[in-house]
Design goal:
The chain is of the alpha/beta class. Among the domains are: about 1-120, Rossmann fold; about 230-320, NAD(P)-binding Rossmann-like Domain (Rossmann fold, 3-Layer(aba) Sandwich), CATH 3.40.50; about 350-445, Regulator of K+ conductance, C-terminal domain (Alpha-Beta Plaits, 2-Layer Sandwich). Helix content is about 30%, strand content about 25%. The protein has 15 helices and 22 strands. The protein is globular and about 60 Å long. The mean pLDDT is about 90.
């Protein structure tokens, strides 16, 4: 597959790294040679020092044979123009990063399709969705709903209160149990577990279950004492904060602490009475105490500085806040933040890359997420009639090492998958994989 990425910035470089795992034919173009020099020698891709809005350059890059053109520069106008030119010159699919919420509002997709832009992504909205999913369940680090909750994936940090530690999974998660442990992150390593693996204290465990059994999962992992989030304090009033607050449940009471006085005025206009805007420094302990940090259930740090966000969350933790969320855009800091037990880590480029990644896969692959903390992929596959996955029970399939099936949705109902499960064509199947080429998995689901 030939993929051209315009913009060697955060999303573009991260996406190039992600796609290079699958040995794709990748060209990364940018107008800064310095940015390209940092990448070209480390990854299997070609670089071009050029503008994505040049017809001559696009032709030289072989745009006529490109399967996917992705424009993720900081300039949304350049991204859209590049996509329009790429589509007109023969690219099969195009993706543009935008900074305007209006462009992703319902009903906009057809307009952009007519212009030659197959899809638009607004990273701040994607991040806001993840933030709110985490706030709705204070005891969960990461939540992902499939088919409106028919299946639910929960990423949970295990503590000494967990009742299923140090027991083989085959003894605690059998075919009749209402959950599967589909991935474990431990001491920097990712495990796609088998029946003899055990859960240990401080593991980050990923559970697949159905909605009705979420309370059961909460009980066995020892998180029943976590209070629900009603009072939220947000540090940083950027676009991500605006989108998160606008989409938070109405029962949540929100305060935003913003250092820039002008931005405070703008936030009051944008959010009306949805949040109380406070002019100040979110790292100021006295200010936090004055604004009731000790009565706050969640602290969300969304400034543009990863170090500031991490330190602020650590401070909030020490002051008794149980749920903290930090936006960490520097990938190098993600593992450090995780080791410091910050809480939920939000990385817009990883979230955006996962959405774009889906476009390079076949039509029968739907939701795709890259679990950055676990260095694993989770994707929703729909098997074709006669595909290999439908011919035998799961236990007889000899699935690739590093791959497991967590569950499936059939006729709107969620089911967990055991060794005896027979998968049917048309099922929505949730696949978890670590160090497995996604294209190799596609072959199992295609005829």
């Amino acid at each position: 597959m030939k993929i051209i990425i315009a913009g060697a910035y955060t999303i573009g470089t991260y996406l190039a790294k992600l796609l290079s795992r699958d040995n794709q034919d990748i060209i990364l173009m940018d107008e800064s040679q310095e940015k390209l020099d940092k990448l070209g020698s480390d990854f299997d891709l070609m670089t071009m020092n050029a503008s994505c809005t040049s017809i001559k350059v696009l032709k030289e890059a072989g745009i006529a044979s490109a399967d996917l053109f992705i424009a993720v520069t900081p300039d949304e106008n350049k991204n859209m123009m590049g996509c329009m030119l790429a589509k007109a010159l023969g690219a099969k699919k195009t993706v543009a990063k935008v900074d305007n919420y209006e462009y992703v509002a319902p009903g906009s997709a057809d307009i952009f399709e007519d212009l030659g832009i197959s899809s638009v992504i607004y990273p701040e909205l994607l991040a806001a969705t993840d933030i709110n999913n985490g706030l709705k369940m204070s005891w969960v680090r990461q939540r992902w709903d499939v088919h409106d909750g028919a299946l639910v994936m929960l990423g949970i940090k295990l503590r000494e209160t967990c009742t299923i530690l140090d027991k083989p999974l085959k003894d605690i998660s059998g075919p009749e149990d209402p959950y599967h442990v589909v991935a474990i992150k431990r001491d920097g390593d990712t495990i796609i577990p088998g029946g003899n693996d055990v859960l240990k204290r401080y593991d980050m465990a990923y559970f697949m279950t159905t909605r009705q059994y979420i309370p059961f999962i909460r009980k066995i992992v020892g998180k029943e004492h976590y209070v629900d989030v009603k009072h939220v304090m947000v540090m940083g009033g950027g676009r991500t904060a605006v989108r998160a607050v606008k989409t938070m449940p109405e029962y949540m009471d929100v305060k935003i602490i913003e250092a820039d006085e002008r931005r405070c005025d703008r936030l009051n206009e944008l959010l009306d009475d949805r949040a109380l805007i406070i002019h100040g420094d979110g790292r100021d302990v006295a200010l936090l105490q004055e604004e009731g940090i000790r009565n706050t259930q969640a602290f969300v740090a969304l400034t543009g500085n990863a170090e500031t966000n991490i330190l602020a969350c650590l401070t909030a933790k020490r002051m008794g806040v149980r749920k903290t969320v930090a936006m960490v855009e520097n990938v190098d800091y993600v593992n450090m933040a995780e080791s410091l037990d910050i809480g939920t880590i939000i990385n817009k480029k990883a979230i955006s890359a996962g959405h774009i990644y889906q476009m390079m896969l076949d039509a029968n692959v739907h939701n795709v997420r890259f679990l950055m903390n676990a260095n694993a992929d989770v994707a929703e596959f729909i098997p074709q009639e006669g595909s290999r996955i439908t011919l035998k029970a799961v236990k007889d399939m000899r699935l690739p090492y590093g791959m497991t099936i967590g569950g499936l949705v059939r006729n709107g109902e969620g089911y967990l998958v055991s060794g005896n499960t027979r998968i049917n064509a048309g099922d929505s199947v949730m696949v978890f994989c670590h160090n497995v080429n996604m294209k190799a998995i596609e072959k199992i689901f295609n005829k």
